[in-house]
Amino acid sequence: MADAFSTSSETVIHRVVDVTVKTNTPLEKLEELYQIKETCDFISEHQFEKVALQFPDELLVDSVAVAVEIERNSNAKPFILGDTSYGSCCVDEVASEHVGADCIVHYGSACLSPSKRLPLMYVFERRPVDLEKCTSAFRDLHPDTQSHIVILYDVNYVHAINELMTLLLPEYPNIVVSELVVEGEQCYSHGQIKRQHDDTRLSERDNSQVVYQFGRRFTLKGGSGITDYSMFYVGQEGATLRNFMMTWNRCSFTSFDPVKMTGRTESVSVNRALMKRYYAIERAKDAHVVGILVGTLGVADYLSIIQQLKETIKGVGKKSYVFAMGKLNVPKLANFLEIDIFVLIACPENSLLDSSEFYKPVVTPFEMEVACNKKREWSEEYVTDFRHLLPGGQSHVPLSDSQEEDDETDVSLITGALRSHNLLSSEPAASSFGSSVVLRNQTLTVANANSAASFLAERSWRGLEEKLGETPVVKAVEGRRGIAIAYEEEGTSP
After folding, report:
1. What Rg value do the Cα atoms of the chain yield, rounded?
2. Which residues have a Cβ under 8 Å from the Cβ of 196 and sit 6 or more positions away?
3. Nearest to 52 by CA among 109, 97, 83
4. Given 3-state DSSP classes, what are the helix, strand and coil percentages for the chain, each rounded to the nearest 5?
5. In this predicted model, what pLDDT tens digit does every residue of 162-199 receive, in sequence order?
6. Predicted structure pTM score
7. N or C: which end of the chain has fewer CB within 10 A?
8. Average pLDDT of the residues in 443-465
9. In sequence order, what are the beta bridge partners of 264?
10. What is the pLDDT of residue 447?
11. Which SS3 state, helix, strand or coil, does residue 141 take?
12. How far apart are CA 319 and CA 222, in angstroms?
């Protein structure tokens, strides 16, 4: 486990940082790789004046050249967004609004989470893929030509999928290819808008099942379900593939890595990963103080899920606090020892955070609902998109109307202690006669409410003391030179 409170000075000085330096793309290839003509047409068609260009870290070397070309071929003023507020896969609408941008052009990998504040255009990387080796790996992994297979892929390989299907369809008639779907009236991809309500007419026409999730849409044959299909993923191992595997955990997965040019059967134990997440749910049931981490300000309906979580947590007698701290790391969260568990609100790809290095577990909104909502049971369904948990979503489960009637206790699988489902949820009834005697609450009598306020009161150090009016005013003096391990005036130790 990482030391979140202090770091050895020698470790910092001798640390070796691996940096992959990407060379600048030649000017003659900028047009093709960054779709400058399509971007300028998008800007001119809507008469945008200020355009925010969001680049991930690995593409920042080309950002200036792309901005110059866009400004030269359109009447818009481009602004480069370098360091994103949260994950680079999400659209940084907050930074765009700081410069008063009229629209956003998002480059590189994207989670395709819906955004509603500003008009948006996606420009994906055109990463190379060897189609011959990809088709060869597909045949080796799926020798049965009658297999039912869904083709999934990273967004940066969308340009090669049509050619891949041309090579595979004559041999494999039952494969289904997913297509990228940009949701929202103001979201554009390759100059097209695809709306979800088109799927309903398609489903009613041929009695097929349309699956729409994570910005992908594919149609299953009538009478078949998602568990009847295997998944073949084109892309590198990462958050996107992990998200697919956790959601469709009953499907077998194979993949082809275009960088290593190898195919493999994904041997990651999904059941083991799910049990690890279930352990976090048990920790959430034991928790008394919950920290809600705002990991996105751009994904639609994030305010709604915050409010729903606050109500759910309050309904079982837990206390909640909301934190907005940008990109998460171990030292940041270690500052709040009074928090028993954190719940992260982020896009589906960033919500599955590995919290093994953190001092307190970090769970998803779905896992928190399993811990707090008695009507939601732990089953084969795993939800990473928090919008599905909201009213009207496909996985929404309403809260119980009466918590007092469900005053049950169970045994913690971690501590072995008894715990109540509605601890502190029922307040003593106020007397209409104004008497000083209040009704006795049996739950309050035997329970210890470990709130953040009581925790702070027990700490020996409670932060910096202001001491207003007690500190004398002095003139500024020259400070020390050097680093904390060895200031210049201290000399060097023998």
Report:
1. 27
2. 181, 183, 212
3. 97
4. 35, 15, 50
5. 999 999 999 999 899 998 887 655 666 644 444 444 44
6. 0.77
7. C
8. 60
9. 255
10. 47
11. helix
12. 47
